[in-house]
Amino acid sequence: MNKYALFLLVVSFLFLPLSAQVKKDSTSIPEKVIVHKELEKQQAEKDSLELGMKVVREIPVQEIAMDTAVTGEPLKLYPEADDFDKNLLNELYNNDLYDYMYDELVQMDYSETVKQTLPTDTLKARLAAINETTPFQIDYNPVLEKLINKKLSYQRVYMERLMTLSDYYFPLFEPYLDQYDIPLEMKYLAVVESALDPRIKSRVGATGLWQFMFTTGRSFDLEVNSYVDERMDPIKSTQAACKFMRSLYNIYGDWDLVLAAYNSGPGNVNKAIRRSGGYKNYWNIRPYLPRETAGYVPAFQAMMYLFKYGPEHGFQPQQTLYKTIATDTISIKRMISLEHVAQFTDQDLEVIQFHNPSYKLDIIPVVEGKTYNLRLPIRDAAKFVSNEDAVYAFAKAEFEKIEKPIPELLKAESRTVYRVKSGDYLGKIANRYGVRVSQIKRWNSLRSNNLRIGQRLYIHSRNPVTTSSSKPTETPSTYKVKSGDSLWKIANKYGISIASIRKMNPAKSDDLKIGDILKLK
User: Could you write out the three-class secondary structure of 197-218?
Assistant: First the structure.
């Protein structure tokens, strides 16, 4: 009898929130209605208690009653999934990790008919060869074949661009992957996530090479403020991604499941394991994963194949102009903009931006207790260090020019619509209108420095260009260096890049001499 009374007390406690909610919702109902509702509530509790007694007596311990109209069968408990949940909670509580990472992958339309360009037998043999050298399970399947053929047929230029960028980023990723004992093939994850664009941002806010959401980035100590977004920092974001992948492997012990969890979150992977009947192979749980994750691992495996067998398919990526090993970092002591660095080092602004993508406004701040670094090609880094005081003095003078007196600030701004022409680039347009590249990008919501001919740009300038000066200076075939000239000044005067001047004058050094003749065409 005492056991029965105790059971009644426990079940009544379980239903207490429902009773409290009914009472809370009925505070504004007249008294007679309240009494009627109370009687209905008591009857419902009685019926629930009787049902609960019946369930306890009749259903085995390892099964839970559910709506059989949905499946017709009871839901089973899978110890394997429970172990994953336990490991996940341990990682969260012990390492203060964020349990979901929301990131975006462009959804692949696998129903699209593509031209067959690779014999199936050849693909099977090559996938088997890859499978022997990687901890990932790489098996032939029609989904993977269709995706590979799609990229071979219609995305060749895109793939060659990725292969060119990989020459810069892969040597940067690999030491950190090795440090955290992560397969080096995980470098292809960044290709799938961001197309190796450190400044890319998805429609849901995932940012950078490894597509960290704001909260996830903060949980891995990636700083995000008005000036800096370390999710865009190739090194710091790679370290954070390695920590995240290592924590996922501690949970699942399977790199294919790590990929799925990286994309959709470990919670979704655990649910897929349950829904599949306890399977722990990616391809067995794939039908139960979110749609974008179902295409995620095939996209990753396709990249592994294409990068390995690119030469066999005739891919001819260009040699990258930038090498991580050919750069150096400098700790910044005073606030400076990337444009100031470009001017002082006679380097194209786009090159400086490429090496320093985490500075959102192209300005490196100075904050007490924090260190911000500038990455430059070795030659430019040497020039910067050798003239550091002069660089900061130059930057200070340039910043002071921007701070106009109040009467100047009261002048109405002029809004200009500019249509991009052949040979234009952001630095050239910014100099023409007396604004900054970062401003043009902000006004036009540009995520990169790439422009297309005919593109419209909105320019807000306090000093609009007059009609007489709107025509750019015609570029001569040669130019004779004058006193005070620099490559940066010459390039901006004639609307060409510093890189093109260097290419046409390989015998000339950056230290120009008065009277030197430079080829410009």
Answer: CCCCECCCCCECCCCECHHHHH
Identify whether the C-beta of residue 142 lies closer than 8 Å to the C-beta of residue 250.
no
Nearest to 9 by CA among 25, 41, 1, 21: 1
Task: Compute and round to an integer the Cα radius of gyration of the chain.
Answer: 31
Q: Which uninterrupted H or E stretch holds 459? A: strand 456-461
Query: What six digits make up the tokens of 248?
Result: 């996922």
What is residue 69's DSSP assignment? T
CA distance 158 to 148: 13
Angle, helices 255-264 vs 266-275, to 10°: value is 120
Within 10-165, strands assigned E span: 63-64, 75-76
Angle, helices 266-275 vs 79-95, to 10°: value is: 170
Cα separation, 293 vs 205, in Å, equals 18
- The Cα-based distances of 54 to 31, 143, 295, 392 in angstroms read 35, 48, 45, 80
Q: pLDDT tens digits for 276-335?
A: 998 988 889 999 998 888 888 999 999 999 999 999 998 888 877 777 778 889 999 999
What's the CA gap between 512 and 518, in Å, rounded? Answer: 10
For CA atoms 94, 99, 105, 109, the dihedral sign is positive
Q: Which amino acid is at 97?
A: L
Burial class of residue 455, CB neighbours in 10 A (0-12, 13-18, 19+)? middle
Which stretch of DSSP H or E encloses residue 151? helix 142-154
The token pair at 132 is: 């022997």
In angstroms, rounded to a whole number, what is the distance separating the alpha carbons of residues 91 and 11?
33
Q: What are the beta bridge partners of residue 253?
A: none
Q: How many helices (H) and strands (E) does the chain have?
A: 24, 10
Q: Which residues pair with 331 in a beta bridge?
A: 373
Report which of 71, 83, 76 is spatially closest to residue 59, judged by C-alpha positions: 76
Residue 54: count of CB within 10 angstroms of its CB: 11
Q: What is the pLDDT of residue 80?
A: 64
Write the pLDDT tens digit of every residue in 50-75.
444 433 333 343 333 334 344 444 54
pLDDT: which is higher, 407 or 146: 146
> Which of 29 and 343 is assigned the larger pLDDT?
343
- pLDDT band of residue 413 (cuts 50, 70, 90) is low
Number of C-beta neighbours around residue 167 at 10 A: 16
Query: In this model, does residue 427 exceed pLDDT 90?
Result: no
